[in-house]
Queue: 2 jobs
Job 1
Amino acid sequence: QQQVKQSPQSLIVQKGGISIINCAYENTAFDYFPWYQQFPGKGPALLIAIRPDVSEKKEGRFTISFNKSAKQFSLHIMDSQPGDSATYFCAATPKTSGSRLTFGEGTQLTVNP
Amino acid sequence: KAGVTQTPRYLIKTRGQQVTLSCSPISGHRSVSWYQQTPGQGLQFLFEYFSETQRNKGNFPGRFSGRQFSNSRSEMNVSTLELGDSALYLCASSLPGAGDGYTFGSGTRLTVV
């Protein structure tokens, strides 16, 4: 019940296209859903996060869509750029667990110029 | 301001040895968490410390331990190293809360031979 399932495992997009990464969770106690971006040799960096009281959050080219009833959330990267090529992780945590994050398996995004 | 600092960046140890990794959190952050990242298992939570007390623990054997000092710096120790312990060990610091404001360090790459 603690799992977060992420898809696809890898994604190739042309420059200017839209990248979409999906995650699904089972634990209804999860109430904070961040997305992290990781470049080789670096630790994950927080990209954008959402709480279940809203269905969408947008920050620049990055948007999280959240469907509480389906227990799914997704990351959309608009106007994808080669510099967006990285591994993306969704994560979730329940308020009661302090700072313990459960991560998805990761998506390796490649944006071709 | 300075980010999360992890030392050393790279480490090679022999099976059966023990190892200690260090993490200095962002100034003012009192919560420190540790994660193990491997290609096969992804990002897995090890433990979290807050005010020198372990607040949360993941599903790892007792060979994995940690501690936090009064200045919030943290160390993790792995005893009797196994080949499967080879991984990137990531430290993250945050203000107390449900994953908010999590900042990861660049990690320590441990190779067990």
Note: The mean pLDDT of chain B is 93.
Job 2
Amino acid sequence: DAGVIQSPRHEVTEMGQEVTLRCKPISGHDYLFWYRQTMMRGLELLIYFNNNVPIDDSGMPEDRFSAKMPNASFSTLKIQPSEPRDSAVYFCASRRRETGSYNEQFFGPGTRLTVL
Amino acid sequence: DAKTTQPNSMESNEEEPVHLPCNHSTISGTDYIHWYRQLPSQGPEYVIHGLTSNVNNRMASLAIAEDRKSSTLILHRATLRDAAVYYCILRDSGAGSYQLTFGKGTKLSVIP
């Protein structure tokens, strides 16, 4: 299995531009999570989906952030307009639903976003 | 979520055992103890988890205190590849939530 795939791996953009981060979860996984990691705040959960439906988006910082999961194999995290304080590493993770045995979260390699 | 407390950093010599402590004095009966680690420039990865009994897997061992208010992740022989930030996380298995709340973790340095 290829694991969780994220693209792009690095993104540099200017303030005010729209940014779209992409994630392909592991096939067969029911849950998808988006995290953001910064030096100041550490690793924070932004939103998670179950069977393509957003379950908890309380971590999304503001209306400039939106996430979608149009099908089981693809999700996007969009920032519009982007600001310098959005600079961070964004991770996507996926896992199976629990079926009596533990199923851990598998993380992608992350997208390093720099907003100038 | 119940909170965990970990030392900010620890050092170990290569090929020595490492004991990474975690305090979780407000743990509830349905909280599982999870450990994840994050190698430099990578996403976190699962290490081990447990509820009440000590657990072993190919990566590490987890020793859980009898009152469950603390636990220790044990790496039996540290290698340079084990240098990472180690996160101790509690998750309520009864809440139906699969979220993981990461703290600051312990940064482990391994000295050759």
Note: Chain B touches chain A through 19 residues (CB under 8 Å).
